[in-house]
Amino acid sequence: MFERFTKSARGVVKGAVVQAQQAGADSVTEEHMLLALLGQDGTRSSVALTSLGVAGQREAVARSLADVRRLGGMSKADQEALAGIGIDVTEIVSKVEETHGQGALQSGRGARRGLRTGHRPFTPQAKAVLEKSLRVALGRGDRQIGDEHLLLALTVQPGAVADVLTEYGATYGAVEQALSGGSGGSGAAGTG
């Protein structure tokens, strides 16, 4: 599948690994992929993210992702559903952190096996994004997988990243519209 990735898409994947390394994470997540996308310039996804006003919000997006991690990866929809039956997730997290320390519910706190070898595996969710990017590209009639396909896949992969993107107005439909209006078509740009 990676032979179908454009240079910019490969840059996102490599950038995600760098993001994971910088964060001291034991694996590469879809969060790292989003942060890598937000760090790119001159790509189809960066044009779309800029037109949606997300590109300039990298630090705010990173904080939103950290807030979700603090809550054990619980989405806004999960929090709202629990609130509907009288459970205040923020209060529970605060009590757990009082007892076990700040960040006690954060995911990715396992054995740091990748830190010694330098290899960080992709989480199943991150792998699913890569697979979805292929389906998105095929669905759009594109022969290669570009960074824009990775962004579109992130918007539809259930979880924290899609929730955060939605908070910033970057839904699948909005990104697709920004891509078609941003640089004229779905196959040409970002294939370097």
Automatic annotation (TrEMBL):
Keywords: Repeat. InterPro entries: Clp_N_dom_sf, Clp_R_N. Residues 2-185 form the Clp R domain. It holds the Pfam family Clp_N. The keyword RNA-binding does not apply. This is Peptidase. The lineage of its organism: Bacteria, Bacillati, Actinomycetota, Actinomycetes, Kitasatosporales.
